[in-house]
Every structure is written in structure tokens, then in C-alpha cells.
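TASK: fixed-backbone design
INPUT:
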């Protein structure tokens, strides 16, 4: 067996584990045991897998085959209970993963908490949302996002994506149960520029870890061909599209990706996306003061979304150093929401989580110094 190519178990599916098991001369059912231990029991060390024979464990050790769980290097706890984890990967690169206890996905209906949500930390939380990174940095270069300032270093492997969930669940303990955990692929990176690893991770998270696909949402800046690919997957998260502006003129200024796939192309892909029963698309719209928060833009947005089975998530800009834009006042945000609702478009204001620790949308940037 080739030890260097197979060093880490995390990220391997049942078929790949079976190959390892067979090349070690072990019976095939061991692959299931490994799969179970890695993803459902969330072990950190292969030697702890007591269901495996001693012989097999010794072989794994001898071949330097390890679980490969990423390490939590640091964590920051917000007044609202949100925890931002700085996670160190095998090659010492860092990504950020955010834990939001008792979260829906940070939405609320009436906008009454549009300011900084000062939620009390939840001890016995019934639900939680984990926000995952898909790349080290990001290449998309949205002008309002701090991660963009890093550029992109590399893609995360499927094991590193799943590893974030497992590391955080291990740290948080058994509450809430995994089938009450929501996952959002909204951390660092553009998941659709790392599509294969992202979708493999999704399958492992569903089949292995036990998180329902209906509790997962992937957010894209609008990589149109991958929207079609996602629509063809038998197991997939819900889809959120970061629209952020209602015209090409405005959108291109803040999202250069719009030069490649213009709004019309994006909306056609959204229209053709095969939704499941009761499923809705989400359009995210980051509100930038005096740029895209005017009534005229609200009407244009309503026009775009009309006829789609979709809702709009409004996100007040989370500010940060090096970002040119400002956050609109809460009144303006509420008016924008009201305008959309009056036009028949369901609109929600995303409650900012963990702003004080730089954990909110668009603020993930390995900000160890900033938060400590
Ligand atoms: N690359 C993906 C996922 C990461 S960004 C995407 O673009 O969708 C997740 C969400 O945060 C996106 O909707 C994005 O528009 C939003 N966002 C980015 N920077 C932000 C900021 N500074 N304040 C508020 N929301 C931001």
C-alpha cells in the first residue's frame, strides 16, 4: 500500500477505505467500522478505534496512516455566544470556522434585532449552525469582503472540510445532536471553485456524520456552470446566491466575477435550478450605504426575483479594515426589507453574529491579532 498517498483517513469515502482495508489483508467489513469511527464517532486517533483488530491498527500505525483531524489553534467567544475557531491544517495553513449556538441560519423575520444582536451564550443549545470554509483565502475579490484581501492560497480537501465540522463538534460536546446541526458553506473561500472536494465533503457529512442535507446551505458568488452541476446532484445542500446588486453596472463594481457571468445568466441558472418540495432559493444581498440600498435598487431587485421560488436575505455590511463601504443605518435596512415585502418578495434581515470577534459574514481573515 502507498503510505504517502493515503496518509489521512478523514475525507476518504467507503470505497476508498475499502481499498485500504483490502490492501492490508483485512476483511471488507472493517471499512464500515472505519467509516463509522471516523465520521459518526468522530475519533481523533486510529489507535482508539477499538472495533478494529490489533493487527490492523498496527498496520495503520506502521504505514503512518492517521485520522488527520485539523487542530483548533485558537478560539474567540463573542458576547452573543458565537465562537470563531482558528483551525490549523496539516501544512500549517489556517482557516476559520464559526459556531453559532441556537442558530437558525442567522435569519429573522421582522428586523427587530437589526442592530448588533446581543444574545446570551446558550449552554444547552437545541440547535446550532456551523459556518465552514472551503478554501484558504478566496480568489473572487468581492470589494466588501475581508477574506478577499488574502487572495487564494489553495483549496481545502474534502477531509479538511469535514474535519472542520468534526473538530468543532468534538470541542462543543454532544449538544445539540448532529441532526440538529445546520451547516452553511459561507466561510472563507468560494465553494464552487473547489466543487469536487466540496460535494464529496457534503456526501461524507450526510452519510457519515449524519447531518441532514436539508440542514445545509451552500453560498456562491455566482459560478454559473457549478449551479447547474449542483442541480444535478442526488445529495446536495440548498442553494444561496450572493447577488448583492440588482444591475450589472453596480454588481461589476463590487463583484468582478460579474464580468464573467452577468446577472441575466445567473438568474436563468436560478430559474432552471430544480428545487425540491417546499425548497426555496436564497438570494443574499449585502447592503452597502448609499451604493445599493436605495429604493430604486429595491424595486429592481424585486423585479429580478419576482416569479422565482426565492427569498432575499439582507445582510448589513459587516465593516472591517480596508473595506471602503459603510453600513446603512438600521432604519434604511428596515425600509429596504419593507419595500421588498410590499413587492411580494419574502425578505429577511440576517442577524449579525459575532461581530465583536470578527466572526460575522465577510470578516474571516485570520485576524488573530484583531480579536485578541
Ligand atoms: N464565496 C461564497 C461564500 C462566502 S461569503 C459567496 O460569495 O457566497 C458568504 C456571504 O457573506 C455572501 O453572501 C457575501 O456576499 C457575504 N459577505 C461578504 N462580505 C461581507 C461583509 N463584509 N458584510 C456582510 N456580508 C458579507
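OUTPUT:
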Amino acid at each position: 500500500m502507498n503510505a504517502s498517498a493515503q496518509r489521512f483517513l478523514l475525507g476518504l469515502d467507503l470505497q476508498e477505505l475499502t481499498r485500504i482495508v483490502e490492501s492490508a489483508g483485512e476483511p471488507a467489513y472493517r471499512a464500515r467500522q472505519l467509516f463509522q469511527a471516523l465520521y459518526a464517532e468522530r475519533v481523533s486517533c486510529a489507535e482508539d478505534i477499538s472495533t478494529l483488530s490489533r493487527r490492523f491498527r498496527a498496520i495503520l500505525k506502521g504505514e503512518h496512516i492517521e485520522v488527520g483531524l485539523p487542530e483548533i489553534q485558537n478560539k474567540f467567544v463573542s458576547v452573543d455566544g458565537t465562537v470563531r475557531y482558528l483551525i490549523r491544517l496539516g501544512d500549517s495553513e489556517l482557516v476559520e470556522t464559526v459556531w453559532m449556538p441556537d442558530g437558525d441560519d442567522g435569519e429573522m423575520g421582522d428586523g427587530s434585532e437589526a442592530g448588533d444582536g446581543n444574545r446570551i451564550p446558550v449552554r444547552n443549545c437545541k440547535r446550532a449552525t456551523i459556518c465552514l470554509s472551503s478554501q484558504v483565502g478566496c480568489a473572487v475579490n468581492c470589494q466588501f469582503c475581508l477574506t478577499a484581501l488574502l487572495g487564494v492560497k489553495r483549496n481545502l480537501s474534502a477531509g479538511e472540510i469535514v474535519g472542520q465540522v468534526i473538530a468543532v463538534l468534538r470541542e462543543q460536546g454532544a449538544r445539540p445532536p448532529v441532526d440538529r446541526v445546520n451547516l452553511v458553506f459561507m466561510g472563507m473561500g468560494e465553494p464552487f471553485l473547489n466543487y469536487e472536494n466540496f460535494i464529496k465533503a457534503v456526501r461524507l457529512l450526510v452519510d457519515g456524520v449524519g447531518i441532514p442535507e436539508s440542514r445545509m446551505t451552500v453560498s456562491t458568488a455566482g459560478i454559473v456552470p457549478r449551479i447547474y452541476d449542483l442541480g444535478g446532484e442526488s445529495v446536495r445542500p440548498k442553494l444561496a446566491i450572493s447577488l448583492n446588486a440588482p444591475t450589472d453596472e453596480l454588481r461589476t463594481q463590487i463583484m468582478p466575477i460579474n464580468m464573467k457571468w452577468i446577472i441575466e445568466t445567473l438568474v436563468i441558472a436560478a430559474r432552471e435550478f430544480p428545487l425540491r418540495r417546499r425548497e426555496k432559493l436564497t438570494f443574499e444581498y449585502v447592503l452597502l450605504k448609499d451604493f445599493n440600498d436605495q429604493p430604486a435598487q429595491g424595486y429592481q431587485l424585486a423585479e429580478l426575483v419576482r416569479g422565482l421560488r426565492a427569498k432575499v436575505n439582507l445582510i448589513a455590511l459587516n465593516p472591517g479594515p480596508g473595506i471602503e463601504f459603510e453600513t446603512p443605518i438600521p432604519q434604511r435596512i428596515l425600509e429596504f426589507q419593507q419595500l421588498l415585502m410590499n413587492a411580494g418578495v419574502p425578505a429577511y434581515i440576517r442577524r449579525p453574529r459575532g461581530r465583536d470577534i470578527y466572526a460575522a459574514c465577510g470578516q474571516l481573515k485570520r485576524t488573530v491579532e484583531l480579536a485578541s
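COMMENT: The first helix runs from residue 14 to 23.
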